[in-house]
Queue: 4 jobs
Job 1
Amino acid sequence: MSLYGALFTGVSGLSANSQALGIISNNISNVNTVGYKSSEAQFATILASTTDAGSFSSGGVRASANQLIGKQGLLQTSESATDLAVSGSGFFTVTEGNTINPDKTELLYTRAGSFTQDADGFLRNQSGYYLQGWALDSTGGLPTNRNLIEPINLGQLTGTATQTGNIELRANLSAAQTADGAYVAGDVNAGTVSAHFERTLEVFDTQGGAQPLRLAFVKSAANTWEYEIIYDGDVTNIGGAANNPVATGTVTFNSDGTVANVNGAAPAAGTAAITIPWDLAASGLGTQAITLDFGTIADANGLTQFDSASTLISSGVDGALFGGISGVRVDTDGVVIALFDNGVERAVYKLPVANFQNPEGLSAANGNAYIRTDESGDVTLLEANTGGAGAVAASSLEASTVDLAEEFTKLITTQRAYSAATKIITTADEMLEEMIRIKR
């Protein structure tokens, strides 16, 4: 190797170790950056030419950065429900703007999940990237085209109300009650017969309004009770008094006090179908179907007939009044659920988890995000917990993968290597000076 070759080798050592110092410095600077993936300097030999065995050609060294994108950082708990992390493989899909259905070439991918709502209700992380997701339909279903993603916008949610569809009844009807053999359906509503037991429940109509329904029971024979469902509101809402009671029927009991059948169903059933005939012109409401559940056949888990006073133990009425949005939560499947102050929850979006055949081939972008490249392969948008995609962890953030102690060790090693490279240049320079002095 010539002296000039030694000089070039020393210079390449300075350049490579300078680049390594920059990589280490970047790691240390991002030790607290959410979702940051540490990089490492990889050194490779440079030869001036190919040589035969036993000969030597001067060369040098070069350094390149290798970011360990697939390395999982520790998950740390957070106070915010919209702080998100991916537990496992995959990335959140984001864009620089809040455009709906962006072109796939504009998508970026990140593990930095510190999302908060902006002034318009869009979820955006600290780098200004907007979180993308699938908009769910009214039943919580996903779109057929899984490439149709859009920015998560919670500002468009105003409020919701839910109509009653099910009533569950837990009550006891006294077995000692004397039967009224002259009872005819509708007598309680007409006032000609007094109910042996009755209670009024509040149900919710198709617009979320509270409406009173009275459940009245009359014992008509041994182990047989008749029921009337009476609307106690403004009867013009149901088209007039002639439409009351809105439902009637019969409940029979077994000798052990459990329900035997409701309305003579075949096979025996413990439920009754009720239809409230709301008058559209008078009330603005549509016809409402409700299932009344008296319990499981031959099981004392609903309506019973025991030798004890008639009493209502509990009732369950679904539905809710109108309520405004009060918060949001995200489950492990990435479903964004809006919370309303009336207790209703509604799934509105689902977060896709972006997977790549080779995540190490992604190209880094500003703001701790990545861009798809030919080396990474095309993106596949998967549902969380399926097809190898990780789970979504809410109220969590992924910590930086930087090991500070390891970086300080690398910092010292790089400094020593840089000093050694300067010694190569100094020594080669002194030898050149000796060569020049020979001529003198």
Job 2
Amino acid sequence: MNQRTTLTHLDWLEAEAIHIMREVAGQCANPVLLFSGGKDSICLLRLAEKAFRPGKFPFPLLHIDTGHNYDEVTAFRDQRAAELGERLIVRNVEDSMKRGTVILKHEGESRNKHQSVTLLEAIEEFGFDACIGGARRDEEKARAKERIMSFRDEFGQWDPKNQRPELWNLFNARSHKGENIRAFPISNWTEMDVWQYIEREGLELPSIYFSHIRPVVMRQGAIVPVTDVTPARAGEEIVNLQVRFRTVGDITCTAPVESDADTVAKIVLETATTTITERGATRLDDQTSDASMEQRKKEGYF
């Protein structure tokens, strides 16, 4: 008698994500995987390994660097790409600023939303017809509107009212020259799923995700790390606080949370009991209407 294997919810999510990656590789001529060194894109790398090893990935890795990323994360990014032996392309917002395609309103403005410009420039430079990203629908209301294969027009823009139907897990990644697809294999995952997958697979992470002591200030209800990019303002008290990062991005818009979770198992437990969404108190750029996620996505953001 054959013994039936019971699949866990992580097995189902993993299988779906691998299927999506293979669909992108099969339908698209020149895809790329967006890899920042963050936890979601780390999961994408493991899924790509399971989808395509022992061969090479059928796409390079790409990171759009604002120049204001945490050193721990960019160092991990380079290390992981080297370990896998995969090609890593890095394009910098600072280069777009030198070209004049990105113009800051003032010196202290966050560069985060301007990644859209540099990404579109990289897509044009290399002729990418699909970008595989680690966005998830549970992160933010605009991302909840995304299809798994998200169509972008010849200007790189996203129209939430002009998306393709996705019935019965049939995905259409085809596009005309100049158009683009953003593919999100872990779109149906939650923050908890990501951490449970990291735990199950034993994936390495940048140290910034684990509890550590960091100088911070309290600003508008958020914990803001004190760095060269985000110095304390007049009248703010600098304190050393035990924190970790739930999500990692540009220093100017990524806030940590108080935590003593120094292992993945503790983070899983902490995630199960939190009542605050992942981006709700940790992504400062989501709090301002002029830089809303939906507007940024319409402009080409991933």
Job 3
Amino acid sequence: MSTKFAFVGFRHPHIFDMYQRCRESDQIEIVACCEEDAETRASLVERDDLEITHDSYATMLAGVECDVVAVGDCYGRRAELLFAALEAGRQVISDKPICISIAELDAIEAAARKQQRVVGCMLDMRDLPIYLGLRQQIQDGVIGEVQAISFNGQHPLNYGKRPMWYFEPGMHGGVLNDIGVHAIDFIPWATGQAIKTIVAARGWNATAPQHPEFQQCGQGMFTLANGAGVICDVSYLTPDSIGYQMPLYWRFTIWGTRGVLEATYNSKTITVYKNGEPAAREVEPPAGKPGAYLESFLREIAGETEGLHLSSKDVLKAARITLQLQEAADKGGRDVEVA
């Protein structure tokens, strides 16, 4: 029997990764697609792979028989859409971030507990060969115990091409929450060390003066349970003309007691600098697991709990810690203990 998916919101292109995987899956039937924004609906008319069936989410939710609601609307609208679906007894999965405030996350978690439903998310850094390889090297003890991590997740702003709702008050929610959640999820999973303390964080506007409230740049520092330190930058500062092809895109440098690992999204290999070896060496990453976030979600809503690649618990934990990091940037928080 197929799992019935209904989609709401196509205002961020990330959602099309999930949408196409659902179309190609023999386990999933797409039964409805809703887009409430008239301009976005008009832009989708010529797509031959998508039929918008509803322009009202309330109507779709009340009238369509579905098992799952998948959300890809503006960041600032996601919480209300997820909450409504959960209250209606549906399983839910969303593009990241799932919401933009801790209060919103509290409401989502409460509804998920009440209805005993799963919250999925497109945290697909876990699915990619390079990051699977970094985790494998760490778990195999190649560099000993992790002691320090630096990661850079800078993106191009692509002003004029990026959806303009990013710059509307209350819609974006901050760059650390927008981008940083991938690494906040990945680091504990890769290292086996929980995030313990948010030491400091900062967000600011650098080159978008026409939107002074938009938080274009973000940096943070936090510690892991074993005392390891993490420093990050997830700003929208990459040159638009180079974009996602920049060699430094999603760069991780990981120092351990016996060596160092380094890799980026665009690198073909992982560089290993191991104590006792005279030079760096390159390690091929393992095969990727494309779409594992979706496969894991399907397994969890079917009742499986063991060996999940990404669980609802993982999703909610990553969201909460990232929102705490964002809140530290917004309010000047220091040395915030992670629950």
Job 4
Amino acid sequence: MDSLLDLTIIIPNYNTRVLWKQCLTSIYEHTSGITFEVICIDDNSTDDSADMVAAEFPQAILIRNKAGQMYAKNNNLGMKLSKARYACLLNSDTKITRNAFLPLVQFMDAHPDADACTPKLLNGDGSIQSSVRGFPGFLTLVLQGLNWHKLFPNGRVSREYYANRLDHSAEQQIQAVASTALVLRRSTWETAGLLDERFPLFQVDLAYCYMLLKKGYKLYYTPCAEVIHYGSQSVNQMPTKSIRAMHQGFRDFNEHYDYFGKSRIVKGLIGAAITLRYWLKLAEYYAGSDKRVIKGPSRVRDTHAIPPR
């Protein structure tokens, strides 16, 4: 491919028109020093999101899905259409406050061993939102499902799963990260592969990072850029359905990736634990005041920072 751009920014959307507009406005306002394209993929929204992009951001490439394709397929389509050396998988509920993409491209250029990288994520109030994760053992995952980290914020779950000891001021190699703002090298998706479409939405980033790790690819965290992330604005629209889909993602990961081995007995035990976790999370949703689907220990409620309609 002749004269590749530096970066393709891929932003899927489902019914987050106001946030999507804010995200796109921030990109075009702050991005300079690189050549880039923005691919907007609307997943059959009902809030006129696609019409907003067509009217207010004609420079963006707009794809209108006639039926919902979900996260993995939408991002894969964006990477297939990319005309750049790198692609950033970016959530629609993010905001760029500085020229974040230039230092991310420069980081990848300066680190040829980096197959992917992620920037520092911030909550709407400016606090750090940790999206870095580890691949822990069985006991740690069971404790995480029981909200052990809420009782012991510096305990085993926080250390091994939520990576709470990560130095957010230092670039470093990591095991896994949420794909909120994930920059991939073209050779990564062309050789390692695209996102696993057996995971339509939940755990697709977990599966992709695990696949990269097993194949020897390197994923980095870098503080050279910051992105605000309001968090889970699409999945919060259908909370109980999302909680169910999240745990189905865990079951699929257990089945397809043999994380705890190939034994059917072990997989059955893991499946039973996931079912228990699902019912606990559902009970927590109905009994608690915080109705967000995803609410890790560093995620604060950011609704005050969302612009008015």
